[in-house]
């Protein structure tokens, strides 16, 4: 492909794929624009650690402007891509104030990742937040901690029990990690902090349609994870689908045809399934590209879209060769797209993208994790140390690594959770109400019993690239 001597490269998405692509191109003779909905890079594999108070936002995110402050040819912009014009080679982006601006490109790299999928049941989202963004993590932290606080004010009985019941849909690493962390929080962190309830009585229910959790791991590691979760007190329900989620409970339907079961719970967390973001579906439509049922875009061997060599699709949005939705694929895809652009500049042919599996990891509880790297299978304390070193190695920026290493040293000595703060809004502001449920504008503002919406729910976050561990 012939491109200008100093081409304009637009990278959409500041996740792992976009970040690594921009880094590799930063020394090339190109003009780079990195567009992201939050103008920051999020280390998504540690979101659940933020949600359960182990880490702060600053430990797992970094402003893209700070990351590229020393690169004159890299421009980071805040905005959400909403329209691509392949003929004019422009992308229209939405500012937070709902005005728009246009970016010209010669080459565009689509690294927007995937978003949480409710498998056609979008209404579940009101009561079952996913785990994809910083907002999701903070909302989950808020819901989990508030559940204990409300239970403390209730007499013994079914209502209190429903607030002390936590349901997690999805038995992949994210679901397993969340379930283990909530149970650990209840039995260790909060054990001596309440007077009228015993947090250790909290039930954590894990639902999955398969016959074992962590299906992407070797069976022996899956069995160890199951044993560890049961030892923690997590109740596992396998071979089932969550078929309804509402304010006060969830319905679970066995796949074998047995009758559905109702569970009274005030906290449902959703980690089952992903799908393409709306902009990715728009791109596929305007380019005439084929997609799978989740919206992944079919790409050529070099990760470009057929008939559009100037458009790359990387990360878990790239539909080819069953590429996994993990951070390694996003990183390697970003580096590959950058190499292709550099080879175009040099007049050399592009090469085929080849993904190299760097292994999978899952955190179960303090000093207990799993690591699968080729034939290597590690679990328990050794797996926990390996898990920590791997994640710290991939953190963005030296400051993040130093801070997180210091925090980890404290964790080894004392398994505390020092980031449990959450916020509730003011009763006189509909967009920041004193509740975590969605606000119904038809309800009176003063009715604090109505389903309401908070600022945390109102603020959108970028859909980042896949995590370092295997995701559902």
TrEMBL record:
EC number of the protein: 1.6.99.-, 1.6.99.3
Cofactor: FAD
Region (Disordered): 435-472
Keywords carried by this UniProt record: FAD, Flavoprotein, Oxidoreductase
GO molecular function: NAD(P)H dehydrogenase (quinone) activity
Single GO BP term: aerobic electron transport chain
Ranges for domain FAD/NAD(P)-binding: 8-334
Compositional bias (Basic and acidic residues): 462-472
Pfam families: Pyr_redox_2
Family: Belongs to the NADH dehydrogenase family.
Protein name: FAD-dependent pyridine nucleotide-disulfide oxidoreductase
Species assigned in the record: Mycolicibacterium tokaiense
């Amino acid at each position: 492909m012939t491109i200008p001597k100093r081409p304009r490269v637009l990278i959409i998405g500041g996740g792992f794929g976009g970040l690594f692509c921009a880094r590799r191109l930063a020394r090339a003779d190109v003009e780079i624009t990195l567009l992201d909905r939050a103008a920051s890079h999020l280390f998504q594999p540690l979101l659940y650690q933020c949600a359960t108070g182990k880490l702060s936002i600053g430990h797992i995110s970094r402003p893209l402007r700070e990351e590229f402050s020393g690169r004159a040819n890299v421009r980071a912009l805040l905005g959400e891509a909403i329209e691509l014009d392949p003929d004019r080679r422009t992308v229209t982006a939405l500012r937070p104030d709902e005005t728009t601006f246009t970016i010209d490109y010669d080459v565009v790299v689509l690294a927007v990742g995937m978003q949480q999928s409710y498998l056609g049941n979008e209404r579940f989202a009101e009561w079952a937040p996913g785990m994809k963004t910083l907002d999701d993590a903070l909302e989950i932290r808020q819901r989990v901690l508030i559940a204990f606080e409300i239970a403390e004010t209730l007499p013994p009985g079914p209502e209190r029990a429903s607030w002390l019941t936590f349901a997690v849909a999805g038995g992949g690493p994210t679901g397993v990690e969340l379930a283990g962390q909530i149970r650990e929080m209840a039995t260790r962190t909060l054990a001596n902090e309440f007077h009228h309830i015993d947090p250790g009585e909290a039930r954590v229910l894990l639902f999955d349609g398969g016959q074992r959790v962590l299906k992407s791991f070797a069976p022996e590691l899956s069995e160890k994870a199951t044993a560890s979760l049961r030892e923690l007190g997590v109740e596992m329900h396998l071979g089932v689908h969550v078929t309804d989620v509402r304010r006060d409970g969830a319905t679970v339907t066995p796949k074998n045809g047995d009758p559905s079961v109702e569970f009274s719970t005030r906290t449902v967390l959703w980690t089952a399934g992903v799908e393409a973001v709306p902009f990715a579906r728009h791109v596929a439509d305007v380019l005439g590209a084929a997609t799978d049922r989740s919206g992944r875009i079919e790409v050529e061997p070099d990760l470009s879209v057929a008939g559009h060599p100037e458009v790359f699709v990387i990360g878990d949005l790239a539909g080819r060769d069953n590429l996994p939705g993990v951070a390694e694929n996003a990183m390697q895809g970003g580096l590959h797209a950058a190499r292709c652009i550099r080879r175009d500049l040099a007049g050399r042919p592009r090469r085929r993208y080849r993904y190299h599996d760097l292994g999978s990891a899952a955190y179960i509880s303090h000093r207990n994790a799993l690591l699968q790297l080729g034939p290597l299978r590690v679990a328990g304390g050794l797996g926990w140390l390996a898990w920590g070193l791997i994640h710290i190695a991939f953190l963005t920026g030296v400051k993040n690594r130093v801070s997180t290493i210091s925090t980890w040293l404290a964790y080894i000595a004392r398994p505390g959770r020092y980031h449990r703060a959450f916020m509730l809004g003011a009763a006189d502001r509909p967009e920041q109400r004193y509740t975590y449920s969605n606000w119904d504008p038809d309800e009176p503002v003063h009715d604090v019993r109505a389903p309401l919406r908070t600022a945390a729910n109102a603020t959108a976050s970028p859909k980042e690239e896949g995590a370092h561990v295997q995701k559902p």
